[in-house]
Amino acid sequence: MKKLIVLIFISMMSLNSFSQNVIDSTSIQLKKSIARLVIKDLIIGDSFKKELNLTSTKYTLLENKVVLKDSIINNLNFQVSNFNNILSTKKSQLKFTEELNEKLRLDLKKQKLKNKILGGTGLIAIGGVILILK
């Protein structure tokens, strides 16, 4: 087994390998004025990319702000609805208490009238008992 490994190693070392040398033939030569214009355009393009990134970030922040304001508006609308429900409940409670108050007033008047009648009857009964006993 060792001999096989040594044999493979020696055969691999004896192989010749080669590669191609690539010569770059795509170089372009520009005049100085055109090269300056190209550099200016590249700088302007880079600044536009940065500005686009900043604008995108600003747009995202504004979208988040709108979502937050919408949630606040929905929350306030919900609170208004709850307050209206509470107000209607309190109005119905007030109406019920006014009805009970009126009913109690009528019952009190009836009771006072009964007391006057019974009080007068009681005096007459006491007067009659005194007359009978004499």
Mean pLDDT: 85
Question: Which percent range fits the helix content?
Answer: over 70%
User: Gap between N and C termini, in Å?
Assistant: 154 Å
As a whole number of angstroms, the C-alpha radius of gyration is: 53 Å
User: Treating each run of at least 4 consecutive H or I residues as one helix, how many helices?
Assistant: 2
| Shape type | elongated
What is the domain tally?
Answer: 1
Content-based structural category: mainly alpha
Instruction: State which percent range the strand residues make up.
Output: under 5%
Order of helices and strands: HH
Biggest beta-sheet profile: none
Uncertain regions: pLDDT < 50 for 5+ in a row?
none
User: How many runs of DSSP E, i.e. beta strands?
Assistant: 0
Provide a descriptive summary of the structure in words.
- With 134 residues, the protein is an all-alpha fold.
- The protein has one domain.
- The chain has two helices and no strands.
- The protein has helices at residues 2-14, 32-133.
- The radius of gyration is 53 Å and the shape is elongated.
- The mean pLDDT is 85.
